[in-house]
């Protein structure tokens, strides 16, 4: 069909760029996998509940299989014991995928500067958005989701993300 | 040294504990811990000492046995044959201190990962020395003996091994259970914890008493204020001080509100697990109202850090009564609506009645406390048996179950919320005026006017911040009826502003230890409900 003759189809067809369609689809249907370990996971529960309602941002389809998800939300402290599991989950998620570190522990280890706590999940997986707070308020978690939405608009749509990232557990 | 503390020789250990249990009536093993005396200014004869804390059947008296360990490698006799709860407790000491226990069935690491080298709670282990873990263990070393005991074979009996957790929506945090299934039925299970081990006890040894309060928040993060209060209360007992009445009443209100919030989260998540999503909204939303009140009062929703040694940071704000009463109405509405849906609901009742029952005797043996123990029909509540903070002057009831199944564990929590609301309402009416902090310059921070207005106040603040509150030399076990059970702190002080050792007696740790045993012969779907009803909070369990 010749697209220059769209007037023949009246308003049934809209011409646009492929990129724009893909972005539009992705931004309004982020499927999060919640890697909830500690206190932040409780605040994530509040984010998902009706008052804060994460579904207003199209991200309410919480997937508990990483293979269905494209947004990893790490909510809570990740210990060295937990790190290989986090990596396994990240590896199982299909591209393109994004990652949010919720709270001080996931971002930097927080005030658990000790023998058992991973000093930030970015040692293991690439992080796109860090959320401050111990734990952050639900609004802050929503803001992180919106941040991801803004970010994915700016990025090239059909390239692999984070190809240069090398985590501490990647070679072992 | 308090009069309930006894020093015993390691050779007499098994005999003494057996006697305490069988003849003296100390049937509930609360906790076992160790102390590393390496850096003590007057070190005793041996480097390691073990501490055994037991509670009497009257649920009031405790006895503490202190055992000098001559040689950590040789260790002492295990008491896991006497108390099931000793199993994990001894494993933890083996892991954290490297003390061996003779005749222990599965003496292996529990909190730290399998590749970890060293024993982090030894004083010569550097706090920041982390070690990467590359591969998780498969747990078959624990599963094989379990299957052999039951005369089962993976291939012949066509069993399937399934991992529930550590990252699983129904595992409520980071708990891993390896289950051997025959069809849908669990025939054997082993649990692995430690995924949320955050080094609480090591951190305590490196911070002064008031700095530890934020760490206690994150033990049971569903009822953070309660942990604050329990810790502050224990330290105050060591200092031999009592918070003024107004402070105590604020603590009672906040502790009971925290208990309600904790139970709300437990029930909301538990009912969500069995598909009752509407209950989740009804129970979870009033919790948000409670958090609004708490954030108005303390500045934080979840991790409040509102308590201080000797009192709290600041007084209640104007108009707190009406805010709190409003919250109570909303909570009451949520509970009523939720109960309307489940109380006479056959799906709910058939689904969880007679699932994973725990008898009273078993529950004591497992070291259960709190709602889980009361569900089994044991009338143990510290607020009744050893009342602190004027609890004996309040009109409220103890809620006790009968069978100890999943249904009882959930319903006890529903009823306890009503009792807590009763207490809060009475406390609001009885709220006295006056100070909230003890009037002692060595403990309470001076007012800001004093700090900015005079050299004395400034020095006072400086000393309290830098040195901390100095606690007299000694050791003390303080217990508190927290939302999940008996939350105890065993603190050893060397007289400085930093504790020499802090050990938490976490209720969830012992509940979790029993979990693999009580889900046996029930279905996978039942196991999920049982886990929800036990209300395992990983932060408190793994510390």
Task: Please provide a written account of the structure.
The complex is a heterodimer of chains A (172) and B (543). With 172 residues, chain A is of the alpha/beta class. Chain A has a single domain (29-154), classed as Rossmann fold (3-Layer(aba) Sandwich), CATH 3.40.50. Chain A has five helices and four strands. In chain A, strands 1-2-3-4 form a four-stranded parallel sheet. In chain A, helix 2 (39-48) crosses helix 5. The longest helix of chain A is centred in the last third of the chain and has 17 residues, at 138-154. In chain B, the strands form five sheets. Chain B has a four-stranded mixed sheet, with helices on one face. Chain B has helices at residues 13-22, 86-97, 140-149, 200-204, 209-217, 224-239, 245-273, 277-298, 320-342, 346-352, 360-366, 370-375, 382-385, 406-430, 448-453, 455-466, 507-518, 524-534, 538-542, and strands spanning 5-8, 28-36, 48-55, 62-69, 76-77, 101-102, 160-164, 176-182, 185-192, 307-308, 311-312, 474-482, 485-493, 501-505. With 543 residues, chain B is of the alpha+beta class. Chain B is globular. Chain B folds into two domains: 5-102, 2-Layer Sandwich (Beta Polymerase, domain 2); 200-542, Cytochrome-c3 Hydrogenase, chain B, CATH 1.10.645.10. In chain B, helix 6 packs antiparallel against helix 7, helix 7 runs antiparallel to helix 8 (277-298) and helix 7 (245-273) runs antiparallel to helix 18 (524-534). The chains are: A alpha/beta (172), B alpha+beta (543). The interface between A and B is large, with 40 and 50 residues.
């Amino acid at each position: 069909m010749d697209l220059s003759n769209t007037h023949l189809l009246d308003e049934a067809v809209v011409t646009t760029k492929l990129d724009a369609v893909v972005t539009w689809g992705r931004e309004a249907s982020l499927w999060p996998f919640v890697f909830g370990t500690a206190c932040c996971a409780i605040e994530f529960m509040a984010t998902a509940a009706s008052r804060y309602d994460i579904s207003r941002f199209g991200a309410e389809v919480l997937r508990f299989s990483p293979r269905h998800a494209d947004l990893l939300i790490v909510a809570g402290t990740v210990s060295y014991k937990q790190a290989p599991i986090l990596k396994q989950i990240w590896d199982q998620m299909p591209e393109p995928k994004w990652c949010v570190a919720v709270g001080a522990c996931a971002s930097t280890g927080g005030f658990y500067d000790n023998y058992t706590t991973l000093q930030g999940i970015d040692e293991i997986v690439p992080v796109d958005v860090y959320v401050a707070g111990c734990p952050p308020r639900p609004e802050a978690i929503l803001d992180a989701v919106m941040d991801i939405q803004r970010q994915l608009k700016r990025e090239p749509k059909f390239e692999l993300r984070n190809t240069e990232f090398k985590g501490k557990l990647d070679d072992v | 040294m308090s009069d309930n503390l006894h020093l015993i020789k390691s050779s007499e250990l098994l005999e003494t504990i057996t006697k305490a249990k069988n003849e003296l009536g100390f049937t509930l093993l609360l906790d076992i811990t160790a102390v590393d005396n390496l850096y003590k200014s007057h070190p005793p004869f041996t480097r390691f000492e073990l501490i055994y804390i037991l509670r009497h059947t009257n649920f009031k008296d405790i006895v503490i046995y202190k055992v000098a360990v001559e040689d950590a490698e040789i260790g002492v006799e295990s008491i896991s044959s006497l108390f099931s709860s000793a199993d994990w407790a001894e494993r933890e000491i083996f892991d954290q201190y490297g003390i061996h226990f003779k005749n222990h069935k599965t003496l292996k690491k529990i909190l730290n990962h399998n590749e970890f080298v060293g024993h982090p709670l030894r004083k010569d282990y550097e706090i920041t020395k982390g070690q990467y873990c590359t591969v998780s263990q498969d747990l078959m070393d624990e599963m094989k003996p379990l299957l052999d005991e039951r005369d089962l074979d993976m291939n012949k009996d066509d069993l399937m091994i399934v991992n529930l957790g550590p990252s699983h929506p129904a595992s409520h945090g980071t708990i891993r259970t390896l289950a051997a299934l025959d069809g849908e039925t669990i025939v054997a299970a082993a649990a692995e914890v430690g995924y949320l081990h955050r080094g609480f006890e090591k951190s305590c040894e490196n911070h002064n008493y008031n700095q530890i309060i934020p760490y206690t928040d994150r033990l049971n993060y569903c009822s953070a204020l309660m942990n604050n209060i329990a810790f502050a209360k224990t330290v105050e007992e060591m200092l031999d001080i009592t918070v003024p009445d107004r402070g105590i009443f604020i603590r009672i209100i906040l502790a009971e509100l925290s208990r309600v919030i904790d139970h709300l989260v437990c029930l909301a998540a538990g009912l969500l697990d069995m598909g009752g999503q509407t209950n989740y909204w009804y129970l979870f939303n009033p919790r948000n109202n409670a958090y609004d009140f708490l954030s108005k009062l303390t500045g934080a929703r979840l991790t409040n850090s509102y308590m201080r040694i000797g009192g709290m940071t600041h007084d209640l704000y104007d108009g707190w009564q009406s805010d709190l009463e409003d919250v109570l109405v909303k909570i009451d509405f949520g509970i009523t609506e939720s109960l309307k849906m489940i109380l006479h609901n056959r799906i709910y009742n058939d689904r969880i009645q007679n699932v994973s029952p725990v008898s009273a005797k078993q529950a004591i043996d497992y070291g259960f406390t709190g709602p889980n123990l009361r569900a089994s029909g044991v009338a143990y509540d510290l607020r009744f048996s050893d009342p602190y903070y004027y609890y004996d002057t309040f009109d409220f009831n103890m809620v006790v179950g009968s069978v100890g199944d999943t249904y009882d564990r959930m319903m006890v929590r529903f009823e306890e919320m009503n009792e807590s609301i009763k207490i809060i309402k009475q406390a609001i009416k009885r709220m006295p005026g006056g100070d909230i902090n003890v009037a002692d310059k060595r403990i309470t921070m001076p007012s800001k006017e004093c700090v900015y207005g005079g050299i004395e106040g400034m020095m006072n603040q400086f000393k309290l911040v830098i040195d901390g509150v100095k606690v007299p030399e000694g050791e003390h076990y303080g217990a508190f009826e927290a939302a999940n059970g008996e939350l105890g702190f065993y603190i050893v002080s060397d007289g400085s502003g930093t504790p020499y050792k802090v050990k938490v007696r976490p209720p969830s740790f012992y509940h979790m230890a029993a979990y693999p045993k009580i889900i046996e012969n029930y279905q996978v779907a039942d196991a999920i409900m049982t886990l929800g009803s036990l209300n395992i909070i990983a932060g408190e369990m793994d510390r």
